[in-house]
């Protein structure tokens, strides 16, 4: 009986300490998240082409039609939360060339071949790369509150140009 009491009290002590650590880390994470958000506003640099969810654009320079269908997965760590993994957002983009059928491609915010996440893809002699996905999820609303409000920024380069993407 004494052993059970000791084990139970150690378990409760560990849980109380764990909760105290979470409160400290959450306040630290909030200030870090605020700083990174200020550093990466949606700007029109580096030939980034911006799309609202559901928006369609014909890009004459690349002779292709691009439609941002939506976000199929958004597991990014919400602002103000301490996560083990930063997460990923996967955008579904429909591309169609002048002489090709429409094709839906999935492009992620991070490169992880093990999970089949790719930050860029090749279509019709062009490399399409995902640069930005906004807004960022929050701990209160999560990703469900963001449905229909997503905006993405992509960069398209012809396959022969110097490119830092794959």
Description:
- This protein has 166 residues and is of the alpha+beta class.
- Helices cover 23% and strands 33% of the residues.
- It contains 1 helix and 8 strands; from the N terminus they run αββββββββ.
- The protein has one helix at residues 2-39, and strands spanning 49-52, 56-59, 64-74, 89-97, 103-108, 120-123, 126-134, 151-158.
- The strands form 2 sheets. The chain has a 4-stranded antiparallel beta sheet, with no helix packed on it. The chain has a 4-stranded antiparallel beta sheet with strand order 2-3-4-5, with no helix packed on it.
- A hairpin with a 2-residue loop joins β6 and β7 (126-134).
- The longest helix has 38 residues, at 2-39.
- The radius of gyration is 21 Å and the shape is elongated.
- The termini are far apart.
- The model is unreliable at 20-44 (pLDDT under 50).
List the helices and strands and how they pair.
Layout: H1 2-39, E1 49-52, E2 56-59, E3 64-74, E4 89-97, E5 103-108, E6 120-123, E7 126-134, E8 151-158
Antiparallel strand pairs: 1-8, 2-3, 3-4, 4-5, 6-7, 7-8
Task: Please give a quick description of this structure.
With 166 residues, this protein is of the alpha+beta class.
Please supply descriptive tags for the structure shown above.
166 residues; alpha+beta; four-stranded antiparallel beta sheet; 1 helix; 8 strands; 23% helix; elongated
Q: So what's the overall shape?
A: elongated
Strand content: 25-35%
Helix coverage percent: 10-25%
What's the end-to-end separation, in Å? 62 Å
Radius of gyration: 21 Å
Structural category is alpha+beta
The count of helical stretches stands at 1
Give the H and E element order.
Answer: HEEEEEEEE
What would the average pLDDT be, to the nearest integer?
Answer: 76
State the major sheet. Answer: 4 strands, antiparallel
Going across the biggest sheet, name each strand in turn.
Answer: 1-8-7-6
Q: Could you list the spans in which at least 5 consecutive residues all have pLDDT below 50? A: 20-44
The number of distinct β-strands equals 8
